[in-house]
Amino acid sequence: MIICPACKEEIDNDSHYCDQCGQQLLFCKQCGHVGLGRRCTRCGGMMALPAGSMAAANAGANPMGANSMGNPMANPMANPMGQPVGTPTGTPGAGAAVRPGVNISVTPSASVQRPANVQQAQPAQQQPVASRAASVQNIAASISVGPAISIASSGTARASMPMMTLVNDSLNIRITAINGAIIGRRKGPYVQIFGQQSYVSGIHAQLKYKSGEGWFVIDLNSSNGTRINQTPIQPETENALKHGDVLTIANINLQVEIR
Fold first, then answer.
1. Which residues touch 54 (CB under 8 Å, ≥6 apart)?
2. pTM attached to this predicted model
3. pLDDT in tens, the chain (259 residues)
4. What are residue 2's DSSP bridge partners?
5. Cβ neighbourhood burial of 80 (10 Å; 0-12, 13-18, 19+)
6. E strand or H helix at 214, and its extent?
7. CB-hemisphere CA count at 13 Å for 102?
């Protein structure tokens, strides 16, 4: 066991986050001591993210992300010569970008004279009252009033988020899922439900909804894990939930209902 440097609680040796307070852990490269700063307070070595964590993988994937000069893709609005894309090489027209320090004069466009033999367009004749009434009836016919109001000219309406409920009747648990909500003993909107469940981590899992794909659950490096239909899921990965699945948080089974 190791001691969390933030909350001083005991946690597992292979933890990437503290399951009590959610603090991300750093380890000394030389002596392996856990801490929070850049330097190890024990030997003075450099602190780093634990090997194998998603955060460490993301940090190593783009080592030159902070150096725009070493990464030509860091500034997609610049070409190899350093000039912003779209900068005019000649005299710009209306709306053209002007570089600082360059004086550009724009000649006003000449006014267009209407030939004498061209008559001015006549205003459209006013639509008869009977014709306007027929148009109103046609518009009203395209609108159907019922449990849901649909307008024919508005196109296909965006599908609303389906409601997901997590249920355990024996423990009298009924949870309405919230997009982005944390499931945990010490954090999230369900603390009153899981606060007394000692096997549930302080920050255990997260619920997430993606438009067009559905509901997902993400294990946040919990101590006792998360399972779907008794199959353990990998930490920090999105795992789809379907109607009828059984989601297990530590030792608590929750029936998934999606309407």
1. 235, 236
2. 0.42
3. 778 877 877 777 777 778 778 777 788 888 877 887 788 877 877 888 777 665 555 555 554 443 433 443 444 444 444 444 444 444 444 444 444 444 544 445 445 455 555 455 555 555 555 555 555 555 544 444 444 444 343 334 345 899 999 999 999 999 999 999 999 999 999 999 999 999 999 999 999 999 999 999 999 999 999 999 999 999 999 999 999 999 999 999 999 999 9
4. 11
5. exposed
6. strand 214-219
7. 13
